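Teaching note: in complex prediction, the entire set of molecules is handled at once rather than each chain in isolation. The prompt given to students was simply: 'Predict the structure of this complex.' The entities are:
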Amino acid sequence: MNQTQIFKQIASFWNNDMPFNQLLGLQIKHFDTLQSEVRFLWQDKLIGNPIQKILHGGVTASVLDLAGGVVAAANIIDQLDDLSPENIQYNLRKLSTIDLRTDFLRPGKGQEFIATARIIRSGSKVAVARMELHNEQNDHIAFGTGTYMVG
Amino acid sequence: MNQTQIFKQIASFWNNDMPFNQLLGLQIKHFDTLQSEVRFLWQDKLIGNPIQKILHGGVTASVLDLAGGVVAAANIIDQLDDLSPENIQYNLRKLSTIDLRTDFLRPGKGQEFIATARIIRSGSKVAVARMELHNEQNDHIAFGTGTYMVG
Amino acid sequence: MNQTQIFKQIASFWNNDMPFNQLLGLQIKHFDTLQSEVRFLWQDKLIGNPIQKILHGGVTASVLDLAGGVVAAANIIDQLDDLSPENIQYNLRKLSTIDLRTDFLRPGKGQEFIATARIIRSGSKVAVARMELHNEQNDHIAFGTGTYMVG
Amino acid sequence: MNQTQIFKQIASFWNNDMPFNQLLGLQIKHFDTLQSEVRFLWQDKLIGNPIQKILHGGVTASVLDLAGGVVAAANIIDQLDDLSPENIQYNLRKLSTIDLRTDFLRPGKGQEFIATARIIRSGSKVAVARMELHNEQNDHIAFGTGTYMVG
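The expected output is the structure of the full assembly:
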């Protein structure tokens, strides 16, 4: 498998076998070493404010963390010579979020939400990504910065 | 109703009528103008890493945001002269998270998780709280800082 | 005076009468309600690491805070009807940094440094800006997010 | 030299040969693998707001970064078997701030300022510290969280 195929397989695994991503309906649409896109649809169970009917802040943090995390994962894999499933799985165990800042810019209203991430620091040990959340009308709902352990 | 009764009523409302809190099983145990405690039990649907069986980072961010948010809510109410339900509800609409930093210190493993918040800045417009997440064995899993709009 | 003239006067005041900005040699080149640019030259006294000869992290935080702060100031002024010096000065007293996150991406090396800010949330009470620091060779040295009180 | 003597020597070097620390008058009073204390006196050149005569936010960020950084340095040294000056210097080169969040809680007024740091995550690659700034009257001026590369 080449890198593109591996990334697709990982997206599929995280979309279908990661319980909390499934609970929220988060779908990784694309990721590589530079950027990613994760989408999800409005569901009433994601409401954090029953009066105003807006997303819970934790939903926003969850999707930003995932969007940045898959870019960090791509950077782990990009450093590997041996692309066997065993070696990939072994090295992905190193992936963890060190810290995450979420800036809530506008109320989380919409029918579909699109999170995008872009790498801003890529190293052998630590990667940093910045993320944005928009709705289907391109309202800029949130901004985030995530620091990830990658080695 | 006095302030303590009002706080209890709000905790009950947020525990029972806030869809995302219920989805995650978050239970506000106590809050006032200075501090709060929110608890939840391990559930497999909260897993963010199927291999290592640890909490999704978004679950951690969600509970820290809630723990800080209720302390911010208490500070809104503490500034009111008129404690009628209408006035409380009107003023609680001002509450929103401006930004949230989450530091992931240890893997999110455990049977029960306890989030605590403590106010560190209390103003008429903005409140800042710092939060901690521990498991039932008192392992320090995460640390957070939240800035909230309160006026 | 119109808004552009007022912004120039404020830049001049902050460049020439703000002791710490002068100590570091920070020069606001331009700012409006959407963005800003602040520059400074390398000086040995700004060294934070005598072996590697790189900027102290506090220098980076200082210039990012200033770059975001002037955009926040512009947003305060933009909300005023009365543009008399007294009213401007009175309202600028409300300006303060609530919190600032700085991400250090690359070593702070260079001859000249350029900080830019862009507003990402503009409200009557709170403004949020994101900032970048580059050197004269366009190396991306740091990234930042600042939350400011504006009302 | 034992560890305590090494820490004293590093404090002396950073106090006396780090240009930006000297410019601001930052004095490391004590540090070990768990905590640190850094002090500095008010000086007019540290003013960030000439009307209100308060510390520039960058001064606050600088001293918090230093307070956390020395605790991170202690954690680097604590992992070493070979405590020769060459090996210590070689390993301290790995020290860098990854990110720093500063929460400005009260105006930076006072005659003397005391920054303290406490480690909250200690690992072979990344350390996290949280910091506080008080003045001589024990007013809590700022709070911070810093993530450091240590390996």
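Point out the following to students. The first helix of chain D runs from residue 3 to 17. Chain D touches chain A at residues 98-99, 101, 125-126, 128, 145, 147, 149, 151 (CB under 8 Å).
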